[in-house]
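Exostosin GT47 domain-containing protein: structure tokens wanted.
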Amino acid sequence: MFTSLISFLVLTGFYASFGTGQPLVPALIIMGDSVVDAGNNNLRLTLVKANFPPYGRDFLAHTATGRFSNGKLAIDFTAENLGFTSYPVAYLSQDAANETNLLTGANFASGASGYHDGTSLLYNAISLTQQVENYKEYQSKVTSMVGRDKANEIFKGAIHLLSTGSSDFLQSYYINPILNAIVTPDRFSDRLMRFYSTFIQNMYDLGARRIGVTSLPPLGCLPAAITMFGGIGSNTCVERLNRDAVSFNTKLNNTSVNLANKLPGLKLVVFDIYNPLLNMVMKPEENGFFESRRACCGTGTVETSFLCNALSVGTCSNATSYVFWDGFHPSEAANPISLLSRPLKALTIHHLFVHSSISLSITGLRIFKDENMFKRLISFLVLTGFYTSFGTSQPLVPALLIMGDSVVDAGNNNLRLTLVKANFPPYGRDFLAHTATGRFSNGKLAIDFTAENLGFTSYPVAYLSQDAANETNLLTGANFASGASGYHDGTSLLYNAISLTQQVENYKEYQSKVTSMVGRDKANEIFKGAIHLLSTGSSDFLQSYYINPILNAIVAPDRFSDRLMRFYSTFIQNMYDLGARRIGVTSLPPLGCLPAAITMFGGIGSNTCVERLNRDAVSFNTKLNNTSVNLANKLPGLKLVVFDIYNPLLNMVMKPEENGFFESRRACCGTGTVETSFLCNALSVGTCSNATSYVFWDGFHPSEAANQMGDEDVDGKCRMSACSSAKLFLFMVPLVLVSGFVFVNIGPKCPTSFLTSLSTTHISPPLLLSSPSLPPAPAPSLQAAKEVSLPTSALSTKVESVQGDRNRTIQLNPINITLVSNNVTSTASSELMKKRVTKKIDKIEFELQKARVAIKAASMDDPVDDPDYVPIGPMYWNAKVFHRSYLEMEKQFKIFVYKEGDPPLFHDGPCKSIYSMEGNFIYEMERDTHFRTNNPDKAHAFYLPLSVVKMVRYVYQRDSHDFGPIRRTVRDYIDLVSDRYPYWNRSIGADHFILSCHDWGPEASFSHPHLGQNSIRALCNANTSERFKPRKDVSIPEINLRTGSLKGLVGGPSPSIRPILAFFAGGVHGPVRPVLLQHWENKDKDISVHKYLPKGTSYPDMMRSSKFCLCPSGYEVASPRIVEALYSGCVPVLINSGYVPPFSDVLNWRSFSVIVSVEDIPKLKTILTSISPRQYLKMYRRVLKVRRHFEVNSPAKRFDVFHMILHSIWVRRLNVRIREV
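Answer:
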């Protein structure tokens, strides 16, 4: 918006230049709806308010002022950029009581207001007509303070901004069926144009001459609009709403042109916010966001106003990654972008629908949301080695095995002497060929949709049906479930159902049949790879425990659950013994909400859920999860998942309309109260004609429509359901994640996906389990005489040399170093690692291999929730992979610090100088308890705690030019630890590292040939022309801590109050700085370049006053100015040759800094001024985000510079595989 605003000011004759002490206009007047409301609704009797947390959590003092955002509104940034030192006060707030605050403007906007006063009336908001009346009152107050003439100058010179219209459509027109029926959207827009014209005329009559009005945004792309009007399961913009917005905007523009021509002296500007917002929604990553379809608050689907509150479940921890804060309003992070690209967003709508998300309780793992369940299935299948690509003719798993009760019974009870059957109409009326197969539903079961999504062309046959007589049908699985079965065999006995114990016996028989067909080895592969699903437990409570008064009297529900847990444990153990390794089990549903349960246990006339039954189900589910965790930990290789179906079903029952249903308390069949099995028959009176409107088909079982709610397409999008609202039996949309990993090769996929390696060597990684190996290639030698080619990443990251674009790729395949005994002369080998892990080093390498696989898989996963920080945005080459790598480092990485050596040369270093990183890292490692281990056999890496700075001070003879004493000190230390320990010789130093910030650090590292050639060197002086190798070495930041702390170093003003374009001050040394001073010293007021700062000028203040900070190299390529710029919020400009910026394996420096070659120094101003305000603001925001990675903390904090250095070392270590033979 600011770009357009400046154009507007130029046209109106008010804009001269930035940097003056006065605002560019005398006042800023705001009118409209909640997108610009700053608190006028706070004291009104209306639901449309935002004066409570989490609104305002990122605003000044973390205060909820009534702004519908987590922080500043777009108009707040507008006020800043116009030069105002405060924001226009809400006219009805306490701030307006001090009338002097009104001299620079006021905000009259009200959430839920519109062009049509009837829209405001619906929500008791302040109508646009009343806002004009309040403006008249405001004019009287200003006139009384400054006099008529001065007041008229203020009103005439002020900018008046109007942002409204969305509420007219979203909160009035679209939700009013009568209005919809008699008035087309086009005619409705014409009506609004009349109100708009009246508003402009009234404001003109009151003296306003400069008016800006925003267009409608793409209404169909607001998260809440997608939820409300997009149809069940939609996650894309609603095109009809967008078409209406485009039509309205065309009329708005034409009407504005006519008004401007009609009213002399009127400067009327229409700001296009449609296209900029559409761009952010469609291309979030290009605009610095991760999420544009869901909002930050709550589930991100509809929550706004009172629905977005401190208790909203799922609210994100970092709103900067989201375009939308709530279902209708942009986040603070989106507002500055909108400011620079003309989108002051009019995104207002308030609705009372709320969606809740299902969570999967993954035993031993973590909680996941249902909206990406199929993606997680693919992750699971990739990890387990079964998935190759979509579109193949083969199923994604070899077989699907089903056990349980009537929810998953496909017809096993048909031939049994039992009342619990479903092989007659109206069961199956919507199934294939309208056939009653024995499924307890009108159509497909949830497991049928699961089979489809897994790629099976037929459903698992009922094991006791005629279909199973053709034994070839059994090769892809079978269904053993029986209606009225339970964990307790006594439950089945009551109804002559097939007990769970007998189902296991039938499974054994099934195994024998399969084995006879394909042989033992192939059969074992099928059983091991198959997904086994168990769904039972409801019958134990509803058809046994609750209806047995004696059992009720002597056994409490909690004790009954304990008894069932013993049967469950026995079942899992038996299945494990039979070779099952992938098992999913469902929780109990909310038992008290089933129609039959309400009828039987809810009391006469009751139509609400029976809470005591629900409490029992919750208690059981907790025990089920805990028991499953214990079993998964106890049984090696078992992947055991507990699926939560309690909350999704409860959500559908309590909020049927949100989930696409009409009825959730009665079932479709018969009266809908108790009918099940034989009671639900062709003669049942009252059976509904359309079961798709019902959650339940009969008194206990879901309809096909409810079962399909969990079904997803292979692209991860829901086919019929609203993904954001969790659906019943999503647990049947497939078994997705498991506790533990199965490993596959991690060969290169994209050279720039995470760490871009500088090695082109392909080495076959070890073959683990069923993973295929990559084609072998010659292994490089690790002899001391030649350069060792050690690829840098199991992660695929980008490393970029600043001079030019010399990008090279790091392959994801670690080098195998095979050693014979402990002989130093060793060779690299491409032999495959043995499957059995026996030696200590093999165990370590096995752990690293698990990490490599987990990291590789993260590229197709969703960002992981993190209480401290979630890396997101273009500042990272691959944020998801980096985050997973970081978490794996925290979980596994162990470092042994050699105790040999005495201070000050060892275990000591400077903490208050330009070389402060040496001392800070040494001291942090010395006191660390998380990464440091005292057992070298458990270490992944070994730290040589020497300080080159201290050696220069205490060993080197000043002005002697004799480097020999330092070389001998380093060499002697390596000889000492290699003689005393076996670890150096084992890897020829490849898993050892040093850290140095002194200019002589690189030279010191070559005191020992293997240290320089093989070891990981963490260096400030990361100069590729001086043998720095990004494929194995680590570039670390040079940080000048004069006091030893960050106090007073971090922070700076917003871009709007940084008057200097670019700044540098420093001594003339090295080849680059003389060129810079020659061209720019005292040559241009915008490029402030100094050899020495004028007396009384503060260096830190100059950096904080500058938009760009020039960082030329000196004698060496590294410069502390880079970090000082980041600390100050100043975009760094790197001017050097051959320098690899810190953490380039993770950070995309070109996204938040400017890289200028030495040859382009004369073009510096042209380069910097060619960066648009919008792009600069993006870079500024990214600087603020990434500087956490450069902050020095004591003690260290997650993601700070200490941990980033460790992560870079961790990445290099992942690329060396060591074996002993």
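The first helix runs from residue 2 to 12. Residues 1-21, 339-393, 710-838 have pLDDT under 50 and may be disordered.

Cheers.
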